[in-house]
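Quick entry between incubations.
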Amino acid sequence: MSKTPPDLRRPGVSRRGFLQGSSVVAGSLGIAASAQAQAQGETEPDSAARTIRLNVNGTSRQLTVEPRTTLVEALRDTLGLTGTKIGCNQGQCGACTILMDGIRVNSCLTLAVMAEGVEIVTVEGLADPTGDLHPMQTAFSENDAFQCGYCTPGQILSAIACIDEGHAGDAAEIREYMSGNLCRCGAYPNIVAAIEQVRDSQQG
Amino acid sequence: MKNFTYSRPDAVGAATEAAAADGATIIAGGTTMVDLMKIGVLEPDALVDISGLSDLEGFEVGSDRMRFGALAKMSTVADDQAVIDAFPALSESLWKAASPQLRNVATLGGNILQRTRCPYFRDTAFAQCNKRAPGSGCAALDGGHTNLHAIFGGSSSCVAMYPGDFAQALVAFDAEVSTRGPGGTRTIPFAELHVAPGDDPSVETVLEPGEIVTGITLPVIPAMANSTYLKARDRESYAFASASAAVGLEMDGDTVRDVRIGLGGVAATPHRARAAEESLRGQALTEETAREAGRIAFEDAEPLDGSAYKIALGADVVAGALLQAKSRMGGE
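Done. Structure below.
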């Protein structure tokens, strides 16, 4: 198979240099945008930061976001809920999985401004107020369904939804319907076992 | 991500007006839009969020027609028992795509308009991409990797593949798309919605600025009930098709009365294999005739070095899907 010749790349732009360059540009644009917003006073453009309310884990939270702020950024950086992880940041790994109105979604591909009026549940909202873990958290612990733990919050929320959706009938169906959550450590057999345990306890 | 203005109209009319402005783009589920905006492939000045237009979420499976609102979610439709019973290939084309998280958000209207997965389109470090930057060239044709590329419908400007699954079921079963734009409403045969790359691959559909897909309609035909979507891919789940087939069969005894074949993972636009269908009408469906139909389906393919594997794989997928559809027919 033919290899991509190096001259297809923009001359003199390495990936590392490109990334560094774009973060500098993004930083200076941020300063310019806020200065512009202040100068315009009351007539803020629609692209300016705005105040929204998000219902997170049963609490209504007020926060300020730009239209381009993703939901996972709002949860982690603005609200300090760092249980939700950013893995690929492209909707491929599932580390950012949360529940919106009970439905599992990738919070990295959701804009925060599009999440107003929705009930959001993150991993921080699973244990009950007395500190008792959610059955799925307990099952992950009992089955060693993780090693490094980075994908675990997303796996647990996805697993809860997998059962709620009725897609945990057997191991093959669980694997199919958990395919949006990658585990670099390869804990898949134990993740399937944890889900089967919770499914069976709910049926019994 | 470059910043943009954001609006959320509460009526289709207002949404079409806002979306017709220069630099404006519609967002619904956002699974493609946010992804492409993050990697700098799309840089809209304005996002018009139509996800609040709840009138477009419904769908119904009737005895003569089935109609899907453009904002119906992939997961909702895939799991609907009436859809599964009436048209299994449609349900399968939806749940065999993407991941559960994406299907919960992604809409049917957005799905049919999804963009190519060509790595040179998606990576702005490559200056050459006629689809992303018209006139800049094609990195795939100019010595790049071509294993993910179209073997039907490409041009000397672009060989990007249309990656969708759902669209193959639509194109093979005579779907129509309803739209509303600044100029009013219209109905477009699904087979005419997407346009081949030709000289300007940046134009992918016949939709006008501000024109919003509002719904998808299919006539109910007997071949739907005995249908299947077979998808070959690099891993068992959550991957785009290397080759796939949406197939439906209507039999008259041992003879094929009607057959539909849509091919995924192989073409620049949704692709119906009409010559392969024709080879089977009036014939018995055996492993031999199924394999012959698979061969005919790829007779006119124009592969590149990297994509030649799709011919043998695709022929196998067509034959396999035909036999699977036959095996699903009740009482035989």
